[in-house]
Amino acid sequence: MPKLSVRNVSKSYPNGDSGATQVLDDISFDVHEEELLAILGPSGCGKTTLLKIVAGLLEPDEGKVFIDEKEVLPGHNRVGYIFQQESLFPWRTVKQNIEFGLEITNVDSAEMAARVEEIIEIVGMEGLEDHYPHEISGGQARKTEMARSLVVSPDILVADEALQNLDAQTRNYLQSEFLRVQDLTGSTILLVSHNVDEAVFMADRILVLSNKPASIIAEYKVDIPKPRIRTSQECLEYRSAILDVLRVEQEKAMSSSRLKQSAST
Ligand SMILES: Nc1ncnc2c1ncn2[C@@H]1O[C@H](COP(=O)(O)OP(=O)(O)OP(=O)(O)O)[C@@H](O)[C@H]1O
Ligand SMILES: [Mg+2]
User: Fold this and answer.
1) How far is the CA of 88 from the centre of ligand 1 (A)?
2) Which residue's CA is the closest to the ligand 1 atom numbered 10?
3) Domain parsing of the chain, residue ranges
4) Pocket test for ligand 1, best of 17, 23, 208 (most atoms within 8 A of CB)
5) Which residues contact 207 (CB under 8 A, 6 or more apart)?
6) What number of H helices and E strands is found in the chain?
7) pLDDT at residue 192 in the model
8) Tell me, what's the pLDDT at 165?
9) Ligand 2 centre and the CA of 206: distance in Å?
């Protein structure tokens, strides 16, 4: 039984000329319990839009989202969300930021303290609880966001470019940390990334989206045991196949923008 099912989801945004631009075109996929599914796609193709629909933050024009085979409607709170932009409250400490995840639930203060302490230990932020966001590194900020999303034990964690804007070494380290935390918490994760190397290193399965309007153009089951060695022949083979698919999409986008330019001159 899939943990999450997305069925025939389409979405358009108004484009200002009383028309609409279609962003998602009939997207369907499943994510299984404890699976890490990565979604790759060209910039602006609709990845964040898709995650927001999964998390109930945005309503699709068509299609449905199911968790544990029951339909969920916009406004549901079954998904933990790590946003594309850093989203810690600067006036709250690490611990208070993590507590925020629980404040909107009915958890009593003793249980809140126990859960916050446990998740701080899981993500490895002990000793930094009372620091403010400007007193921790970018990598530690991402770990704090991960902890804030996981402290409510969500059914699914969605992460939108969770590890961008970090130097390569920190990014690689956090990819392993992310997998370690997933292992400890048994989370089901849907991860959006621009980074093919990251997807191949982390994911059990990878979906590749087309240019806008996004549809699923390729799927890879990454059959390599974890922990993976990112420079191994197997990893490089997946990487090269996926990069080829993305290159074709990019060429299509460039030639269609050239066509538009020449039509307008
Ligand atoms: N609220 C909105 N109103 C109108 N258009 C929007 C809105 N949000 C996003 N868009 C447009 O929809 C398209 C998809 O946006 P989205 O943020 O989902 O893409 P993305 O794949 O996450 O991009 P990136 O890789 O740059 O993060 C873009 O062309 C964007 O400009
Ligand atoms: Mg995005």
Assistant:
1) 22
2) 13
3) 1-78+155-251, 86-153
4) 23
5) 29, 37, 38, 39, 40, 216, 218, 219
6) 7, 10
7) 95
8) 82
9) 17
CA dihedral 183, 184, 187, 190 (to 10 degrees): -50
44 C-beta closer than 6 A to ligand 1: yes
Q: What Rg, from alpha-carbon coordinates, does the chain have?
A: 19
Q: 15 CB less than 6 Å from ligand 1?
A: no
- Residue 265 DSSP class: -
Tokens of 208: 């590749």
**Looking at the DSSP assignment, which residues form a beta bridge with residue 40?**
193, 208
The predicted pLDDT at position 258 comes to 80
Residue 50: CB atoms within 10 Å? 28
User: 1-78+155-251, what's its fold?
Assistant: Rossmann fold (3.40.50)
Residue located nearest, by CA, to atom 31 of ligand 1: 44
What's the pLDDT at 79? 95
List, run by run, the mean pLDDT of 10-residue segments along the chain (265 residues): 97 89 97 98 94 97 98 94 91 96 87 94 95 94 93 93 87 92 94 94 98 97 97 97 96 84 75
The residue whose C-alpha atom lies closest to atom 3 belonging to ligand 1 is: 13
Q: Is the CB of 46 under 6 A from ligand 1?
A: yes
- Residue showing tokens 């799927």: 219
Distance (Å) of CA 148 to CA 107, 118, 189, 231: 14, 12, 15, 32
